[in-house]
Amino acid sequence: MSETPSAPATPEPEGPEPEGPVPRARAATEAGHPGPAAPTDALPERKAGGPRPLPGGPPPAPPKLIDFGPDEPAPIRTATLWAALATGVLSMVLLGEGLAVNMLVVAVPATLAVHFAGRRAGRRPRAWALVWGAGGLALLTVPALHAAEWPTFFAVVAAFAVGSLALHGGRTWPAVLLGPVGVFTSLVTGPAWAWQGLRERVGGDRGRLIPLLRALVVATVLLLVFGALFAGADAAFADLLGALVPDVSVSDGPWRVLLFALGLFGTLAAARTAAAPTHWDRVQVPAGRARGRVEWAVPLVGLVALFAVFNAVQLAVLFGGYDAVLKETGQTYAQYARQGFWQLLMATLLTLLVIVLALRWAPRTRSSDRTLVRGVLGTLCALALVVVASAVRRMDMYVEAYGLTRLRISVLTMELWLGLVIVLIMAAGVWGARWLPRAVAASAVAVVLAFGLASPDALIAERNVERYETTGRFDLQYARGLSADAVPALDRLKEPMRSCALWDIDADLEERAHIPWYATSWGETEARRILEDRPVSPGADGPACGLREDETLYLP
């Protein structure tokens, strides 16, 4: 949550955005005013026209390290404590059976704790903080909509990363890349900050704490006793209570305690970060030593020439030269596609690395140097986009030959995102690179969100079913390992192939029949509805499916 203290409006500096209170001496120095008086043993300043220091004099003092650590946070609010406790309780109660809508429910009190802590510290959310926060909440809708676990993992990790950006703010590369580190360090300082606030409220007087604990114990006993009585008196109320309250056994105790601790301490860490974020924008990356034109340009011009020759061959192949190339190389259509994609993916990654290093060592003393840098690197970026297009085309050929898998759709998505990063770098060369770190981070969040919302397992099943209808080839073993998101597409298959493909998914859904509604995704609910309308055939896991699998299984 990128926020600033409540203060009179001042022109925003070109450097890192100020966040949190700034010590008076440092603020005066940054504003251009003289700081505190120098110590008496400091070397005297040389007066104008006076003698110069002797060559053998003392060496100059090293540059002062910039303090980017967090400031002292404001005292924690009671509302923050209650919100953190509610997050811990909800995590313990709701997250034990899996991730779905419960992630959004748990995120509500955690967001309130962050808001209360930031407001107490005098911080107000900026536009980018709202963008990051909205992106994090949007990512948490992925487990609520789809049953596949691997897009959910990517979405939750991305939500944590974008949440750290919302807490810290910042516009530089260190701020974008090191944001999660600040939240991890708050896992230690956050609970200590909360404990200090709790002790201040109790004031060492047990008379203020005992009544609160007694009230909580009495309320818990009353709810348990009367809840059990009402459940025994009415079956409908018992069903409602069973859906709302999870079935917790003694063996689940350690797992529930761990979830409570993660929810409580994680929320306290986020609130502590919102109250006093680490100033990653103050981390200065030293500029690389500028190279001469010849030393810098000759390797890059040679690389550009190599890219141009390769892309010319790719364009010739793309416009109808496949037969000639395959005849010359002796490869099959599928072998040609499989051989090239991974090399082109690595070439794209190395191109980005070359661009970063070239910018670090680029000549920059004259305007002609800047023109040279833009021309060479712009041409390299444009040719790299052709490499990206060639890699995407290779993957499309690969999928036509062997079908779509999770690995193939993941690396294809990554290749497309790398192409988008190259486009952003080209735009930064025209309009300036100050916005580039946040734009790259926002593009990563958007790609992960689109990837999760698109339901990759459903796309895999749909593409492979279409391939089966066209070619008669179908990887039955792989299809049986997909999640419930694939059921609508696999339901289009004819029997007995349909029941063979859906048998394992149906068995998994039967095992999860006891899972409460808040841990069930929309994709899983839709799969149950389809399988209830059209159940799988009995014995679909028997010899009939084995014979069918031998006839249709096709692996590269």
Short structural description:
This protein is mostly helical and 556 residues long. The protein has 21 helices and two strands.
Account of the protein in words:
This protein is mainly α. The chain has 21 helices and two strands. α13 packs antiparallel against α14 (about 405-430). The longest helix is centred in the middle third of the chain and has 37 residues, at about 295-330.
Helices and strands in order, then pairings?
Blueprint: E1 3-4, H1 24-30, H2 78-94, H3 101-120, E2 124-125, H4 127-139, H5 141-145, H6 149-168, H7 173-202, H8 206-233, H9 235-244, H10 253-275, H11 293-329, H12 333-360, H13 367-402, H14 406-431, H15 436-453, H16 456-471, H17 476-479, H18 487-490, H19 497-511, H20 522-533, H21 543-552
Antiparallel strand pairs: 1-2
What string gives the helices and strands in order? EHHHEHHHHHHHHHHHHHHHHHH
**What's the end-to-end separation, in Å?**
48 Å
Work out the helix count. 21
Q: How large, in whole angstroms, is the Cα Rg?
A: 30 Å
> Which whole number gives the mean pLDDT?
79
| Amount of helix | 55-70%
Structural class: mainly alpha
Largest sheet: 2 strands, antiparallel
Portion in beta strands: under 5%
Low-pLDDT residue spans: 1-57, 61-65, 547-556
What attributes characterize this protein structure?
single chain; 556 residues; mainly alpha; two-stranded antiparallel ribbon; flat; disordered N terminus; disordered C terminus
